[in-house]
Amino acid sequence: MFLIFLGAPGVGKGTQADIFAKELGIPHISTGDILREAVARGTELGLVAKGYMEKGELVPDEIVIGIIQERISEPDCKKGCIFDGFPRTVTQAAALDKVLAKSNKKIDYVINIEVDEEEIVRRLSGRRSCAKCGRIYHLLYSPPVKDGICNDCGGELYQRDDDREEVIRNRLRVYNQETVPLISYYRKKSVLRNVEGKNSVEEVTQEIERVLKTG
Questions:
Q1: What are the pLDDT digits (tens) for 70-85?
Q2: Can you give the residue ranges of every domain in the chain?
């Protein structure tokens, strides 16, 4: 089964994708993680992507599509995968359709997780990451025991550049301009399913499960 988890930054796509990847036994493919890894390693791709990511802008299609095509050709994607953060534009969606069609595959469902924009800003601007182990905290929902210090390794917590409010709002503007048209694209293909994302993680999971069972 090939699934896309669609929605603005901060709606919980990654959390739900992790849950269903384990449940369905298929890989969770997050372009955000792949790109951040490339940035951390200082690869040629990472250096190109870094400038766009720090401004909250989209990485060019040709870079992202190349990464995705490589990834889904690997053996663990034979039975399907969950895309998280891809596609972000109609151009990418059409390219993905072509790549899958070469293997007689297609997208089964697009799960569109909807959350109010101001709630998204609250969610993302409160995130803090551990500089040592990478654990994620939230100042409101899951704060560390000691302010600014990781519970696990004692590392210093910091706010990622793309979690600053001004960058978040720019990311949302970019999302509305570039990614919202995907909703119409997939609705026309009759694979789009809207899910309310303001509820608890468990409630959102249950709603997605109903979608996958009933179509």
A1: 788 889 999 999 999 8
A2: 2-116+177-214
**Distance between first and last Cα of the chain:** 13
Ramachandran bin of 60, using left for φ above 0, alpha for ψ from -120 to 50, beta for the remaining angles: beta
Higher pLDDT, 50 or 45: 50
| Class level of CATH domain 2-116+177-214 | alpha beta
Q: How far apart are CA 126 and CA 139, in angstroms?
A: 5
Catalytic residues: 13, 88, 127, 160, 171
pLDDT one-digit tens code per residue, 201-210? 999 999 999 9
- Give the 3-state secondary structure of the chain: CEEEEECCCCCCHHHHHHHHHHHHCCCEEEHHHHHHHHHHHCCHHHHHHHHHHHCCCCCCHHHHHHHHHHHHCCHHHCCCEEEECCCCCHHHHHHHHHHHHCCCCCCCEEEEEECCHHHHHHHHHCEEEECCCCCEEECCCECCCCCCECCCCCCEEECCHHHCHHHHHHHHHHHHHHHCHHHHHHHHCCCEEEEECCCCHHHHHHHHHHHHHHC
Question: What single letter denotes the amino acid at residue 139?
Answer: L
Query: Rounded distance, CA 182 to CA 130, Å?
Result: 34
31: nearest Cα among 43, 14, 8: 14
